[in-house]
Amino acid sequence: MQNNRRLTNRAMAFVLAGGRGSRLKELTDRRVKPAVYFGGKARIIDFALSNAMNSGIRKMAVATQYKAHSLIRHCQRGWSFFRVERNEFLDILPASQRGNNEAWYRGTADAVTQNIDIVDSYDIDHIIILAGDHIYKMDYAEMLREHVENGADVTIGCLTVPRMEATAFGVMHVDENDRITQFLEKPADPPGTPEDPNKALASMGIYVFSWPFLRDLLKADAEDPNSSHDFGNDLIPDIVKNGKAMAHRFDTSCVRHAPDAPAYWRDVGTVDAFWQANIDLTDFTPDLNLWDKNWPIWTYSESVPPAKFIHDESDRRGVAISSMVSGGCIISGTEVRNSLLFTEVHTNSYAVLDHAVVLPYVTVNRSARLRRVVIDRGVIIPEGLVVGEDPVEDAKWFRVSNKGITLITQDMLDAREAGIQRESKS
């Protein structure tokens, strides 16, 4: 533990948070994917940042690009408690015009390359490159220790998944010592692991390097006109071929709520996956423990009153069953089942929410019935709206996923209202 602490004191976390996340459709029209809400209070990026802080890493940088205002504001409000005099900080690194470089980051590696001078000023030995758009709990100190003990040029965090599910990932072919012998991007026939041919090691997009080694590699890559300046496409395959690349298994550093609990990791990159991961939190014992005080998920906490439930009549009762209801919510004569309500959701009499994920500041007016939905921030649900009972009608106005989850935004509701008015005049 003491050795891990010394390593983390001389390490930094560099979070790549510039990607839109287009598979989340309209949820990322106004915010980048790492800034999307999750779990009632948090944002997706809070998991990577909390993992770093809980691992003992107090130097962090977040590289932003696509529609970054919401993300930057969240980091300023929720992660401003670091003290420079204690040699700890979180820096925001937006894509910007620097010298003769183009303004935008050209790839994941270029996002670090354009900030070499800033990383140099941190005076670190190791850098951990993180994706800012996954939900998981992980002790990065264990991965860092393993990297140093193996004398690796790069260590890559890997999920153990059923072999044919790995076709959507970068896949590691490893020897019996977990040294990577091949890095295969989305292979049609993924290689199995040495101990189980039915399992494969899929990249988590987490890389540990010594900073001097990576610095030299980035400078060389920046001069290569044939490079896409991407870790997965360019740098990692080169190290696998010419250096020492090691796989770190997530199973060994995952922070679990119980010793026999599964290793929890989710890519909530589609509307279906986002809905399911949030709804899973309403289970009796969810696989992701947000109540763990030993490994908390830090975030910006608004100052709001407790949730309130009002009315107690046979057909007008404010009640929530198998649900999570955040602060500031007012459940007024509404039946809420198997749902997750974010901050300051206000519902009105005779409404029903069933398997609903409702983002902050939503108002649900009287007699609305909403089933298997995701409702974007700030939406005002009109009185009597019914969603989740007629998929054909739902698809006419809203986005309905392959698995029948309906995404509702204010723009969609406004278009619906305009369409109904046109129809009534014709």
Record keyword descriptors for this entry:
426 residues; alpha/beta; Spore Coat Polysaccharide Biosynthesis Protein SpsA, Chain A; UDP N-Acetylglucosamine Acyltransferase, domain 1; 2 domains; nine-stranded mixed β-sheet; 29 strands; 27% strand; elongated
Binned, the helix content reads 25-40%
Output the CATH class name of the largest domain.
Alpha Beta
Structural class: alpha/beta
- The proportion of strand residues reads 25-35%
Shape summary:
elongated
- Specify the biggest β-sheet: 9 strands, mixed
What is the H level of CATH, i.e. the homologous superfamily of the largest domain? Spore Coat Polysaccharide Biosynthesis Protein SpsA, Chain A
- The count of β-strands is 29
Rg (CA only): 23 Å
CATH fold-level assignment of the largest domain = Spore Coat Polysaccharide Biosynthesis Protein SpsA, Chain A
Query: Distance N terminus to C terminus?
Result: 73 Å
| Unreliable sequence segments | none
CATH architecture of the largest domain: Alpha-Beta Complex
Question: What's the overall average pLDDT, rounded?
Answer: 94
Q: How many independent structural domains? A: 2
Number of helices: 11
